[in-house]
Amino acid sequence: MLLEARDLTKVFGGFRAVGGASLDVAEGEIVGLIGPNGAGKSTFFNCLAGDNPPTTGTIRFRGQDVTKATPEAHARAGMARTFQVPVTFEDMSVAENVMVGAFLRHGHRAAARRVAEEVLAFTGLDHLADTRAGSLGTPGRKRLEIARALATEPVMLLLDEALAGLTPAEVRLAIELVRRIQQRGITIVIVEHIMEVILSLAERAVVFHQGRVIAEGAPRDVVDNPEVVAAYLGHHMKRVRRG
Amino acid sequence: MILLQVVVSGLLMGAVYALFSSGLTLIWGMMNVVNFAHGDFVMLAMYAAFFAYTLLHLGPAVFIPGAALLLFVLGVVVYLGLVRHIARGPMLAQILGTFGLALVLRYAAFWAFSANFVSLPDTLVGGTFELGGLRIEASRLLGGVLALVITIGMHLVLTRTMLGSRVLAVAEDRQAAMLMGIRPDRMQALAWGVGAASTGIAGALIALFFYISPTVGESLALIAFVVVCLGGFGSVPGALIAGLAIGVIQALSAYLIGAVYQDVVVFALFLLVLWIRPQGLMGTL
Amino acid sequence: MKQWPLVLLGFVVIAAWPLLTSDVFLQRLGALVLLSAISASAWNLLGGYAGQVSVGHSVYFGAGAYASLVCFTHFGWPPIAGAPVGMLVSMLIAAVVGTPTFRLRGHYFSMATIAAAELARILAANVPLLGAAVGLMGPPVPRSAWDLSFISPIPYHYLFLAVLTLLLALTWQMQRSKMGFYLAAIRGGDRAARSLGVPVLRYKLYALLLSAAFTSLAGSLYAVMIGFVDPDSGLGILISVKMVIVAALGGAGTLFGPLVGAIILIPLEETTNAMFGGSGTGVTFIIYGAIIVLIARFRPGGVADLWHSLITRGRRGAARGA
Questions:
Q1: Distance (Å) from the C-alpha of residue C117 to the closest C-alpha of chain B?
Q2: Which one of A98, A188, B158, C65 has the fewest beta carbons within 10 angstroms of its own beta carbon?
Q3: What is the ipTM of this complex?
Q4: Distance CA B96, CA C48 (A)
Q5: Chain B residues with CB-CB distance to C284 below 8 A
Q6: Which chain C residue has its CA at the smallest distance from A146's CA?
Q7: Which residue segments constitute the domains of chain C, with CATH numbers given?
Q8: Which of B33, B82, B271 sits opposite C115 (nearest CB)?
Q9: Is the model's pLDDT at A238 over the cut of 60?
């Protein structure tokens, strides 16, 4: 297993946001984390990324214990991420944003620049290279975050609602990008509440409800699981299947 | 006995600290912006009291509310003219904005009122009480008690009235407040007005028993930071307790180590707290 | 950078400045502009590039100024020999004070730096070794050339120009390297920077160490030229404030911003001081305060930002014309 998270709990004050959730991710997969708002999937995600270490439980990544490791240590170990609300470095250009990521593995400016150019071409941002990041719209920022993360040359990419707030056309472009990222051999964990995305993209879906994993399996099967339907998907799912 | 005397005078001064620090913490809690000119607002109120008495022959009963009103207006004007525009700007602009204001006020006061120390006559609120062997000046007693009452009053207005809950709603969640039909801009202007008015009353009270100079605001601002940080950012009851504590700590260190070191102890304490608990002693970030 | 010819022209004018005029006031002005540009450029490394707005850099300036004159007063060294001592002490203070302070963000960080600087000022005013409230003097008459005690401001002008050139060259190099990108990322946001593997605390500390060392050097150079330091002129809050204003006016986080800020503000300050005499300092700071309020309100990017938008507008205009 590339990533093994065992019995994670996360308690804020008296509130138990995640209560004993586990997740295994094999190399090369695309795993979708789904669940209603407040189900604990974002908190769980932030535990995985090292942003907010779990209260109890262990996380192993590539065989190493990274439970309490800092976000920067996660990046060095090969785990990159994006944020739910994109945080780009606004007064830098798009290319410079990506170079920050590239400097993780390449100390020299010229090498970092080369990596950034390659990633910009791969993500289709090359025509915006010299644009100020602050002047991009939401889709551009989300894509830039992905590019920046790719420039750290990760083994695994964690996407936090990378497709939320996009138009259907933009969603299709983003799905296509995620597929191409997987083809590069990068394992992907994606938190998403658009079911369409999970159904067409993920090979495996993990459903969160009240801080626990209540179902796990192929997205189509998970969607038919009565417990899942009862927990949250109900009316939302009917719409998707009819359409 | 002397120690008790020191503690009591520290508490009285601390109540005044609590009052103007409550204003700062309110502004902070509302919009995560520090008013670096807060101490200079207090200084302005002190001069307002001084000139109300010397030029217009008005007594404390008039100049205390007068200073409050004056500073309320200043607070609202500063919010509308400056703070509203920089609050979502870059960090440097947020800090420079009110810092520049502090410089303007401080050195305009130098220019207009000269660097000389002035003070109101001791006899304005005259007399000294003897209470079980403790000697308490009437002016300090008035200042301390009034400050305490107003600070508690401020807390009650915030927590027990409709207007107060609207203000707190904006502090809690701007978006949600807007959905409930509250206009955050108005509530923030109000918070700046009230925050500044608290310095108005506090300044007029301090003027009763303390010297007045253009630079007096500098150390008062630092004390307000310390109080807000110790009491938890955005908490009026926290500011009250921390204000009283700082008053006592200052008085004790002046008595035990020497007057020049009273601020050293306070600042060192401040740094220590920030270093150990960056979120403040009682509050959460 | 497409503006190299302009930079070269600027350098030539600044280098030739004291030779263009025989007026000692103007010659002295040149040296003071350069000195202010050194300290503001040093502040800029942390406050501008890394976005950590310190309002307590007087600690390092004072450490440099005091180190020079303590070495002279107590050991009889030439004041300039105290400069490396001051730089070491400053870096030590930076490491001890900076490490815990960097956990604070935004306003908290600024508040903590003010408190630390005030603490240093009050302590210095009560330590007899540091001359307490009276302060310390440099050599009244030069004992040797090493005392760097000149009547003419011209030697100081070139000394300061050399230091500023070194500092700006270093900054330019840093800006283009991994460190420059990492500092800009930190300014953009800690959380995103860390997710990309930027060791935020370590890089903030690097920036502070470099910044403290050069601020301290500016303090030593000040003491060498003026031959006097007391708690207010070495450690007063206005020393810190001036660094921030000069850098912010020119453009915080830009290479030449602090120099441009100094070229605008120092002549203004010296003129008001000359015009209003003793009360000049007051007027200067009213103007300074007003300027930073206006920058914060209308142009947070300073003159550099104004310059860029003018160039862009100019290009667009030219394109339209053609």
A1: 10
A2: B158
A3: 0.91
A4: 13
A5: 107
A6: C196
A7: 4-321 (1.10.3470)
A8: B271
A9: no
